[in-house]
Amino acid sequence: MELFFKVFVLFATLVAVKGDCDVVSKKQWDGLNPVHVEYLARPVDLVIIQHTVTRTCNTDAACAEIVRNIQENHMDNLNYWDIGSSFVIGGNGKVYEGAGWLHVGAHTYGYNRRSYGITFIGNYNNDTPTQASLDALKALLRCGVERGHLTANYHIVGHRQLIATQSPGRRLYNEIRRWPNWLEDVSSLKN
Considering just the CA atoms, what is the radius of gyration of the chain in Å? Predict the structure, then answer.
């Protein structure tokens, strides 16, 4: 029994330190708690990739500051319950918790209750995504499947395929179009 307790404590410590799927928690990036939550029916089969159209970031401090600014804008100016994205990825290769795996986000009108919105920090009409940020997305998606948040046959689409926007920017859009889970024809998704 004592061994079981020690293993449990070790596991709980690792989860608390590493977070779910190696995601930087809201507590770690000093985010605000949501004012309300709606739970997402899982597993989800749609991932929508976006960009922030802000400056890029390559350090933990700079990325966390941008994520905080986005959350404040979403909550204070747009009256969202929380930051709109499910996750935000920095050029430093870290994934920041937004609405997360469990809660409905506010990232793509008409698709929020059936998808995850993953947003890259930067303007990818001009910037090129870092390999670290692309690797972080791939690791997040793998973990999402392993943990039952995403279906094994999930689809990736660009934000621009669903609404009138340039997001996720030409360069990021061109990258994700080569990925195996890419969905070119979104007519089956349209509301």
Answer: 17
d(CA 57, CA 189): 32
What per-residue confidence (pLDDT) applies to 108? 95
SS3 58: coil
- pTM, whole model, 2 decimals? 0.89
Domains defined for the chain, CATH in brackets: 22-28+37-176 (3.40.80.10)
> Who contacts 23 (Cβ-Cβ below 8 Å, separation ≥6)?
87, 95, 96, 97, 100, 140
For 28-40, write each residue's pLDDT tens digit.
999 999 999 999 9
Give the chain's count of helices (H) and strands (E).
5, 6
d(CA 100, CA 83): 10
150 close to 86: Cβ distance less than 8 angstroms: no
| Phi, psi dihedral angles at 33 (to 5 degrees) | -75, 145
**What burial class does residue 37 get, using C-beta atoms within 10 Å of its C-beta: 0-12 exposed, 13-18 middle, 19+ buried?**
middle
Phi-psi category of residue 180: left, alpha or beta, with phi > 0 → left and psi -120 to 50 → alpha: alpha
Residues 31-67: tens digit of each pLDDT: 999 999 999 999 999 999 999 999 999 999 999 999 9
